[in-house]
Design a protein that fits this description.
alpha+beta; Deoxyribonuclease I, Chain A; six-stranded mixed β-sheet; 12 helices; 33 strands
């Protein structure tokens, strides 16, 4: 159809018959907008003047109004074939109406974990994230073995009676003027629903998986190194795991999600989170459960994993631009003097003396998240004396067993930055959690909890003078075990005494007893994962029971079919005072 509404045809076919000599026959069309009648039928409303309509006019009106095209065929005399004037071939329709659907609602993409190839476990949410075009809603219907089991919900949790059945979805994009009929798309998952393997930790923590009471004012915090899939793929340290499928991300990560959701934490701090796992699995699911989250990738070359934090919007206000609260720890290393932080100035002097150490620190891409979480008014209650904001810090420190001096410098940098952020709020408290790759009895934990590290404490001087980092990771991460060295010292420098300022809060462990183990792989057992809190404003109420080494040895070591990571999740309840 041309814009002027006319089109002449040299040869035409109508009702399957060719009309010879139709050069003078003329086809005219008109377009009408429609309106619903009282009985909901579409009625002709107004006729367009096609000569005055621009393409933009057509597009704008077509997005909101149903249209109909009317095509009229008029026969004119043709002397060559001797047709009579206004004579129309018998049985030929001269007016045809076509309903025009412009910009019909459709799906441009459908995102889900592992693109419909992930494992489907009973009790583990499956979330679809459809991307729509010309639609304001997508109706998602779920089918088990062809039977509708859930209507209009992007999330489905398989039930016991779904076990062994196939799962499929039908998605219907809809708009204000279109029901989506004829626009549906269907997808089938490649795996059948199966029972979720037993989780040893959840089995030992039943009271931490019960539904929390509505009047529970405690703040539940979880920290968990979930084991990066990137690191898992590059490591040969997990050959003992049986079956091998237990290590595959499509099997392992849904089990991680299942455990984390079970604790119903108000704040979730995760380490070793792959960027694509955050984007395709964790963030969509937690958003569906009314959490806000932020991911911070490590700044090391070739690394696509980092830290992720989620907080419940039922307990805390939404945070605008949470990404601005993420920092590369190397950017926090002292570059200028600070009169309030004497230890900071001592490290600065050491780095001026040791450019090799400065270079190593700038090579490392570790990150920290320091998100100010403001308690919702209804979550805080009427007690205005309580802190209104929690500075929640999540981090993952350097792993190397011979680098205690680097972890102390990282801990000092975290302490100073968290203190600067804390002072920006009138009533704020502090929580630091994550994988410290060290016990609290070592130098880094000593600095944060005792506020002071003595000159050359423990193996600080040896590590400072002998450590060389080539960027190559040892087969087993051993962050607490000191290895005896026979090589001569490369340098002969002292690691200085470090003292935190009096204004910095006194931190205590949120654990009632020092855990025997939070990380267990063949050849190494250590307590590396911690939650520290400001003792002046936060009281640890209780913590989830921690497993013994015997508990974790059921399947040789971690991870396993019953433990989805090589670290133990740490969960605590805190009370504001």
């Amino acid at each position: 159809l041309q814009k002027n509404g006319n089109r002449k045809n040299k040869r035409s076919k109508m009702n399957g018959k060719e009309i010879k000599g139709a050069a003078n026959n003329e086809a005219r069309y008109s377009i009408w907008s429609l309106r619903p009648s009282e009985d909901d039928r579409l009625m002709l409303d107004s006729k367009w003047d096609c000569l005055d309509k621009t393409l933009r006019d057509v597009g704008n009106e077509a997005e909101t109004s149903p249209l109909v095209a009317q095509l009229s065929i008029q026969f004119r005399p043709d002397d060559e074939i001797g047709q009579k004037v206004d004579e129309t071939p018998a049985g030929l329709k001269t007016e045809l109406n076509f309903l025009i659907e412009a910009n019909t609602p459709c799906l441009s993409a459908v995102r889900t974990f592992e693109d419909f190839d992930g494992c489907l476990f009973i009790g583990v949410p499956i979330l679809l994230s459809p991307e729509k075009l010309f639609a304001n809603h997508v109706c998602v219907d779920w089918y088990c073995d062809g039977v509708l089991v859930q209507h209009d919900n992007p999330c489905y949790i398989p039930k016991d009676n779904d076990c062994g059945k196939s799962l499929a979805v039908v998605m219907t994009p809809q708009s204000a003027v279109h029901s989506g009929a004829g626009c549906e798309e269907a997808f089938r998952f490649t795996q059948c629903v199966e029972a979720c393997p037993e989780n040893i930790l959840l089995g030992s923590r039943p009271e931490w998986t019960f539904s929390r009471a509505q009047d529970d004012t405690n703040i539940r915090v979880l920290t968990y190194n979930i084991l990066s899939d990137q690191m898992l793929s590059e490591s040969g340290s997990y050959s003992y795991v049986k079956p091998k499928d237990a290590l595959r991300k499509k099997h392992r990560l849904p089990r991680v999600l299942h455990e984390v959701l079970a604790y119903q934490a108000d704040v979730i701090c995760l380490q070793e989170v792959d960027s694509h796992i955050f984007a395709k699995l964790l963030e969509p699911v937690f958003r569906h459960y009314n959490y806000q989250g932020v991911f911070t990738c490590k700044q090391s070359v070739g690394t696509n994993e980092g830290c992720a934090m989620f907080w419940s919007l039922d307990r805390f206000d939404s945070v605008s631009n949470p990404e601005q609260n993420s920092f590369a720890i190397r950017d926090l290393i002292p570059q200028e003097e600070d009169s309030d932080w004497d230890g900071w100035n001592k490290i600065r002097e050491l780095l001026e003396k040791r450019p090799d150490l400065q270079q190593t620190l700038q090579t490392l891409g570790h990150v920290t998240q320091m998100v100010p979480l403001r308690l919702r008014v209804d979550a805080k209650g009427d007690n205005n004396a309580l802190p209104a904001t929690i500075i929640m810090c999540n981090t993952h420190l350097f792993f190397h067993p011979d680098a205690s001096h680097i972890r102390v410098i990282q801990a000092l940098s975290l302490a100073r930055q968290s203190d600067r952020i804390r002072k920006q709020y009138e009533k704020a408290t502090l929580v630091i959690c994550g994988d410290f790759n060290s016990g609290l009895r070592n130098a880094g934990g000593e600095l944060l909890m005792k506020r002071r590290v003595e000159k050359n404490s423990k193996n600080l001087q040896t590590d400072l003078n002998m450590f060389q980092y080539d960027g190559i990771k040892p087969q087993v991460e051993d962050a607490t075990q000191h290895q005896q060295r026979e090589e001569p010292l490369q340098f002969n420098d002292d690691f200085p005494t470090l003292q935190l300022p009096d204004t910095y809060p006194t931190l205590v462990s949120a654990m009632s007893k020092y855990p025997p183990v939070t990380h267990f792989v063949p050849g190494f057992v250590g307590t590396l994962d911690h939650i520290l809190v400001d003792s002046s404003t936060l009281v640890p109420v209780s913590n989830a029971p921690m497993p013994t080494l015997e508990d974790l040895s059921r399947d040789t070591a971690m991870p396993s079919i019953h433990l989805p990571s090589d670290h133990v999740s740490v969960v605590v309840d805190l009370r504001l005072i």
